[in-house]
Inverse folding.
């Protein structure tokens, strides 16, 4: 499919002579590109101007015989990883994957899966400075409604599920001390940090994925030897004194579930509720150490079991997570950072926000008690720091149920949407993993 030269459209304001000098230098001697310098379409809002320019390129500039083109902003610069042959190979491979776009590098990305040696599928992303756009995506772009508040890369993220990325990056943005589209990027060094962090994150999470794939091969099947009837897990329910409605609610959640050895713990009240929660967790861990527990469950009094909960599967997950070296196994969360598939129903996460039901293993007890804390301390913040081995059960077996409407920011509808959005992100990653199988070995 790929042929040279590649139609390449560079968006540049005539007044930006410094940028023009830069990209002409970047493309000098690279005969694989056919350069076209495009003056942005005029609009009072620069974001809208960029979108209108992209539409203009698609509708008026791209040759009908071209299957793709490169959209290039004038602050693009090649990295040391760029090679002509690599670009051609990635363009062809991404086309075989029915890609809508293929990015040479991004300043931000969330949710990604390696699908080829140098190609990752990506979810949401930022950065359009060097982007291959395939013909199959043209009409979707030109038919899209673009509001004054929209942003081009965010819009593209929403318009397509087939977005791919070359990594290591072959393109980044050059610092000029100002930005035509993103005013925050006027701060010197800000853009470099974004690209460095995005690249580092991709490598780190991918290394984690490879680690768990190797670990999973070492797991032996012990489930058949387990007597599930004789397993009782110490379960500490955190309840604020006087909150009897919550206590009645959470007590019903555990009715008929003899696998949980339930104990209600009075939450420590503090003017900083986040610190009160952490002090309560410390109190529970101290009690667990006295009891010589090798694992415990900490459960909030607004936790709710989902229809996916089953005793058998849950205990299997606890055992497998322990064999994988997990410090924490989370039953569900409303937000997380980066994530990668570990087993069929468990994901590694680097950070999370709310988790109303979590298993904490003995290996983490001392670290919890040794962790420094102050009035700014949050439980999820500490757990994200003291262990890199946090696993998440999926489908979720736990969600948060809002029992009062006193806090408008935490309405039942709002919380439900957060959990649903998180679930949808994970379901998409499962879909991508199954659609584009890749063997890291």
């Amino acid at each position: 499919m790929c042929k040279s030269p590649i139609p390449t459209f560079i968006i540049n304001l005539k007044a930006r002579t410094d940028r023009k000098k830069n990209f002409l230098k970047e493309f000098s001697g690279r005969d694989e590109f056919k350069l076209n310098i495009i003056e942005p379409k005029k609009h009072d809002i620069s974001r809208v101007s960029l979108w209108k320019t992209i539409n203009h390129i698609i509708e008026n500039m791209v040759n009908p015989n071209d299957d793709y083109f490169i959209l290039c902003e004038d602050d693009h610069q090649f990295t040391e990883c760029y090679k002509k042959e690599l670009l051609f190979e990635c363009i062809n491979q991404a086309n075989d994957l029915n890609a809508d776009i293929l990015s040479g590098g991004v300043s931000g990305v969330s949710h990604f899966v390696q699908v080829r040696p140098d190609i990752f599928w990506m979810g949401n992303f930022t950065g359009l400075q060097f982007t291959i756009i395939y013909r199959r995506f043209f009409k979707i772009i030109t038919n899209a409604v673009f509001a004054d508040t929209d942003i081009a890369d965010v819009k593209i993220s929403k318009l397509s599920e087939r977005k791919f990325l070359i990594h290591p990056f072959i393109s980044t943005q050059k610092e000029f001390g100002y930005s035509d589209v993103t005013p925050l990027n006027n701060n010197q060094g800000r853009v470099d940090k974004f690209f460095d962090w995005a690249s580092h994150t991709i490598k780190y999470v991918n290394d984690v994925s490879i680690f768990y794939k190797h670990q999973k091969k070492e797991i032996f099947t012990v489930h058949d030897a387990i007597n599930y009837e004789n397993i009782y897990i110490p379960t500490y329910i955190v309840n604020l004194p006087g909150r009897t409605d919550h206590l009645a609610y959470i007590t019903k959640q555990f009715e008929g579930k003899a696998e949980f050895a339930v104990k209600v713990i009075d939450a420590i009240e503090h003017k900083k509720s986040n610190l009160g929660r952490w002090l309560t967790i410390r109190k529970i861990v101290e009690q667990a150490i006295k009891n010589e527990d090798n694992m415990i469950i900490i459960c909030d009094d607004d936790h709710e079991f989902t229809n996916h909960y089953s005793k058998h599967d849950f205990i299997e997950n606890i055992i497998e997570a322990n064999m994988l070296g997990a410090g924490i196994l989370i039953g569900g969360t409303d937000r997380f950072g980066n994530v990668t598939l570990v087993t069929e129903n468990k994901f590694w996460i680097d950070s999370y926000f709310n988790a109303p039901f979590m298993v904490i293993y003995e290996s983490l007890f001392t670290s919890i008690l040794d962790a420094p804390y102050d009035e700014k301390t949050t439980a999820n913040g500490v757990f994200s720091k003291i262990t890199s081995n946090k696993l998440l059960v999926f489908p979720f077996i736990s969600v948060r149920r809002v029992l009062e409407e006193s806090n408008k920011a935490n309405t039942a509808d709002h919380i439900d949407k957060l959990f649903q959005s998180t679930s949808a992100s994970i379901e998409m990653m499962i879909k991508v993993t199954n659609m584009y199988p890749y063997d890291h070995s």
Q: What stands out?
A: The longest strand covers residues 108-116. The CA atoms of residues 202 and 436 lie 17 Å apart.
